[in-house]
Structures are given as C-alpha cells and as structure tokens.
Amino acid sequence: MIPRFFLLAAGVGSRLRPLTDTCPKALVEIGGRPLLDRWFHRIEAVANGRAEIRINTHHLHEQIVARTNVYQEQSSSSWGVCHEDSLLGTAGTLFRHLDWIDSSTGSIVIYADNFSSIDLGRFWSAHLDRGADMTVALFRASTPESCGIVELSSANIIIDFEEKPTKPKSSLANAGILAFKPGVLRSILNPEDHDMARDVLPRCVGRAVGWHIDGFHYDIGTKRDLNLVRNKVETGEIIP
Length: 240
What we know:
Blueprint: E1 4-8, E2 29-30, E3 33-34, H1 35-47, E4 52-57, H2 61-74, E5 78-83, H3 89-96, H4 98-101, E6 107-111, E7 114-116, H5 120-130, E8 134-140, E9 148-152, E10 158-163, E11 172-180, H6 184-188, H7 196-200, E12 208-212, E13 217-219, H8 223-234
Parallel strand pairs: 1-4, 1-6, 4-5, 8-12
Antiparallel strand pairs: 2-3, 6-11, 7-13, 8-11, 9-10
C-alpha cells in the first residue's frame, strides 16, 4: 500500500536571506541538487511512479511549479501544486487538504526543507508493522534548543514533546517527517490550528511512536546550517 505524500514547501526562508530572496527554500541546492529533487527521488524509490503527491507553495511559487513539472515529465506519479496566497501554517495547510490527505491509504507528511538520508520505504513499513496512529521520524540534534524534542517510553511511544525548549531534556528531535494512519489527522486537527509542532504534536503524546533515522538528517533552517552541510558534502563526510 502506497501512502499519499504531502510536501510542505511554502515557507519564506527568512533566515536564509539573501539566498531565499530569489530561490524558494525547498530549491536551495546542496551538492549541486535542490533539496526538493532529493525528496522526489526518495518518494519514487517507494512508489515507482505510482505516488499521489501534493506540495504547497507561497514564496516564489512559480519556481516550484516549474520544478514539479519536470518531475511530472520524469515519472507517472501525480503531482498537485497547492498555492497559498497567505501562509496557512503547517497545520492550517493540512486542515485545508484534510479530505485528500486523510485517505484510506494513509499518508506521509514531509517538511521539504530538510536534508535527510531517510529510507521512506523502511519508515512506512515500520509505521504499518507497528499499527501506530502516527509515526514520527527522529534524529539526534546538535542544537536541541532549536528543535522539537521528544521523550520516548521503552516501547518507543512518545510520552513528551516540547517545541524549542530552553532546557532540552534530550537531543532526540522531530525530523519533520510524519506518517499517519487513515482517519487520524481528522481526529487531531482543529480549524484554529496553525503550526503542527506547537499546536498539534503536543496533543499526540501517548498515541504517536518514534522511529530513528539511520544516517544523517539536517534541518536547513539557517545560513550556518546550510554552510555546514554543504561543507560536509564537499569534503565527503556526507555521501548524499
């Protein structure tokens, strides 16, 4: 069973300016390839041309439309671009598309500005095997105070979640890759929700499980983050 995929790519990327004045954050290049290209190939590795994908846009959306047109030419997977004149927030976007994303196949939500080695096939299989309502991909953050930090039980159930804590309890962080059982998003999203991390995930404590990413995962949130990862790729420390 192939899930539906929703890629969140509408952010302005203000902390990456001036680069993002002319380039959407999801199209920032690492190792000569846009971040979004890597998500396209990771999805194709799971779906082999049979994926249903939506991506939201706002800032410089024409560039993302042009890029998804290239993906559409390279694969029989279906891409739908959902433009937002005003930013809805991550939770607001998912609520707007609830009828589509909360489908009988289940779904994976991906923050498209991440650079990750995640195997989406293994992630989805683990989600199905556990029968969890929701599975959150996790990584070890070098700056946990800038991330959503989770605490796990011995059975990998998320028992605490705190967004950008001033005193992090650990370095185990939400990677911005979330899998959902059919019907679950409808049960946890409210019309007034804006941000998934701040408004929604804390309500999922006790019903979500964590899954550790093997390899690397980076949130490309700042120029420092971007330069760090580019250097790791250039020196061969990371093989993307």
